[in-house]
TrEMBL record:
Gene3D superfamilies: 3.40.630.30. InterPro entries: Acyl_CoA_acyltransferase, GNAT_dom. PROSITE patterns: GNAT (PS51186). SUPFAM superfamilies: Acyl-CoA N-acyltransferases (Nat) (SSF55729). It comes from Lacticaseibacillus zeae subsp. silagei. The lineage of its organism: Bacteria, Bacillati, Bacillota, Bacilli, Lactobacillales. Residues 4-174 form the N-acetyltransferase domain. This is Acetyltransferase.
Amino acid sequence: MSTIFMRAATTNDIPDMMRVIASARKFLGDQDIPQWQGTYPDQAAIEQDVATGIGRVLVVDGKVAGLAALVVGPDPHYLRIDGEGWLADVPYLAVHRFALDGSIRGKQLSRVFFSNIMSEAYRRGFTDLRVDTHAQNVIMQHAITGMGFDFRGIVYMDEPVPERNAYEVRLTTG
């Protein structure tokens, strides 16, 4: 049985976080998905995530195996949404730069990671969680919808291919 948990990222994690990003970038590129095929996310973005306390890592058997940034809204990229739109105008947490190391792919650890993220969001008082991904990234879409997120429309990033499918889940207790 593996030991798996999520914690805040530290500066010591940055090399491992960059390794995970390189693995995810290669995986996306091998599938001809243009997401992350430029320089983003770069080390400066990851260093900023750590410095501001929004970076999280998934640790599997003592090794950093995933990363995410938990951004308190309002997220400027989520102000414009084409489609049904967000469910409610409430405080929310946005998940960005979500990635898992290729060595653990296929072990359902995205579910574990998202479950930890959802628990932290709820514990921090957020009942609304948002995330986006490229339209061709069906594996991420499967992970997102498998955790209860619903497609809400299209949002726009600053990357060369800016359109992203946007998803939202409401965390309720009853």
